[in-house]
Amino acid sequence: MMLRFTLHLFISVFTINYLVSDVQAEHLRNNDETWRLLDQTPEPASSNLIIEKQLEWLATEDASTFHMKNIDKFIGDEAIVVFHDRSESSLSAAEAALVSFDVRSSENCVVSVCGLMRNWYMRVSEQCWELKIAPKSSDPKVNGLIRGISAAYTAQRPVATKMYLKFDSINYIDGSVCEYEVMSAVKTNATQDAVVERL
Questions:
Q1: Are 34 and 61 in a shared domain?
Q2: Is residue 55 pLDDT above 50, yes or no?
Q3: Which one of 2, 31, 103, 133 is least enclosed by Cβ atoms within 10 Å?
Q4: What does the pLDDT average to over 124-148?
């Protein structure tokens, strides 16, 4: 009787130890498999490279007014539209201008005027203002048309190395992709004082 009990106890302990070892081994295998899969998983795709669409200004009959050369439609995270870049050697030290844009998109898509600012410890950061939301309208001519996105600059102000239009890639209401078309852009040369007032 004692022998049978001892044998039964031995078998039970052996079985428990085996099960524990098996669970531990399976856990290690799962961990190994997890790490193996992680090693095989490609790095997350980086953000789309943003194309800088430099506006080309075309002369008009009025010597102080310029219209943009047409640019193709694009998705919000594909491009920014640059309208002032201090690094351009052709810029005059006396340059001062007012710019205005009309942009068509779908309702609730957003366009902002942004600039790259360099602070006192030489770090460049983006600042945005003049945010406008594409309106909703039953009139197809008005629906999604953002009028009068405007900015002003001189060669010294604002303290931005580059100024541009930035476009949200996703409609913040329904999550759909936002496509944009710059319908028109006008640059008007102005006096330094007029621009400073606008700023």
A1: no
A2: yes
A3: 2
A4: 92
Within this chain, do residues 90 and 183 fall inside the same structural domain, yes or no? yes
Q: Give the C-alpha separation, 105 to 114, whole Å.
A: 18
Q: Is residue 98 part of a domain?
A: yes
Looking at the structure, do residues 110 and 176 belong to the same domain, yes or no? yes
Please indicate, yes or no, if residue 181 is contained in any of the structural domains.
yes
**Structural domain containing residue 16:** 1-41
